[in-house]
Amino acid sequence: MIQEEIRRITEQLPAGVRLVAISKYHPAEAIREAYAAGQRLFGESHAQEIQQKHTALADLAGLEWHFIGHLQTNKVKYIAPYVNLVHSADSPRLLAEINKQALKAGRTIRCLLQLHVAAEETKFGFTPDEAMAYLDSGAWRELEGVELAGVMAMATNTDDTARIRQDFHTARQFFERARRSLSNAPHASFTELSMGMSDDWHIAIDEGATLIRIGTQIFGERQY
Ligand SMILES: *Cc1c(COP(=O)(O)O)cnc(C)c1O
After folding, report:
1. Ligand 1 mean position, distance from CA 214 (Å)
2. Burial (CB count within 10 angstroms: exposed 0-12, middle 13-18, buried 19+), residue 146
3. Atom 4 in ligand 1: which residue has the minimum CA distance?
4. For the chain, what percent of residues have pLDDT higher than 70?
5. What is the total count of domains within the chain?
6. CA of 219 to the centre of ligand 1 (A)
C-alpha cells in the first residue's frame, strides 16, 4: 500500500530529513496516491517520463519534481521550466547547460553535485577530488541560473553494510568540506545531502542525509 509505506517512512524521519518518492517506471496514478498521503517531493530519472507526468499531474498543487538520473545535455531544455532540484549534476558541461536553460526560462535551478563514491565503475559523477577541483576553479560562480544546493551520492550495491556506511561517510565528509569552502558564496546554499535508497536509507540517515530517495519500498517493483 503506497499510502501506508509513505506514512511508515515519514514517521521515522528525524527533523531535517525529507523523503523524495522515486516514481520512475510507475504510472501517474501511483503519484496521485502518494500525494493523497501528503507526499510532495517526487523523483524521476528520464526526461520524457518526467515531462509526461508533469503534464498529467499539473493539477496537483505544491508537487516538487526532482530529477535523479543521468541527464543528457540535449534534454535539459525540456525540464528546465519546472524542475525543482536536479540531484544528478554530474559534469561541468551539464551544469553549464542547466545554467543556460534556467536563464532562458527565467529561473534559478537548484542542483546537487553527483559524487561517485561507490566501488562500481561508472562514467557518471564527480570523484570527491574532481568535485573539489570544480568548486576551487570557481567556474560555477558564473552560472547565475544554478544554485549549488549540495551533494548526491549512491553507495556501493552490496550487502556489506560497513562498505555502504563508508561510502555515505565519504560523501558526508566531502559535503562538509565543500560547505565550509562555500560559506558566503553567491548562489551556493549547500544545505542538502541526498543519499539513501530502499535498502540503505537508515544507514544514510545515520550518516547525515537530508534527502532520502525511495522507490521500490513505496511503489513496489517497477512496472515498465
Ligand atoms: C531508482 C533510484 C532510486 C530509488 O531506488 P529504490 O531502490 O527503488 O528505492 C534512488 N536513487 C537513484 C539515483 C535511482 O536511480
Report:
1. 6
2. buried
3. 215
4. 100
5. 1
6. 11
Task: Say if 97 falls within a structural domain.
Answer: yes
**Is residue 124 in some structural domain?**
yes
Domain around 158: 2-219
Amino acid 123: pLDDT: 81
Q: How do residues 209-220 score in pLDDT, each as one tens digit?
A: 999 999 999 999
Contact in structure between 47 and 72 (CB atoms under 8 Å):
yes
Q: How far is the CA of 185 from the centre of ligand 1 (A)?
A: 31
Taking the CA of residue 88 as reference, the ligand 1 atom at the shortest distance is 13
In this structure, is residue 58 part of a structural domain? yes
Helical ranges in the chain per DSSP H? 2-11, 28-36, 47-56, 76-79, 92-104, 128-137, 161-181, 201-206, 216-219
Pocket of ligand 1 (CB under 6 A): 22, 24, 45, 68-69, 154, 197-198, 213-217
What is the chain's mean pLDDT, rounded?
Answer: 97
Query: Is residue 224 assigned to a domain?
Result: no
Amino acid 222: pLDDT: 82
Task: Give the domain CATH number at 9.
Answer: 3.20.20.10
Please tell me the distance between residue 197's alpha carbon and the centre of ligand 1 in angstroms: 6
- Pick from 167, 175, 173: which is nearest to 200 by CA? 167
Q: State the number of CA atoms in the 13 A half-sphere of 78 facing the CB.
A: 16
> Minimal CA–CA distance to 63: which of 97, 39, 79?
39
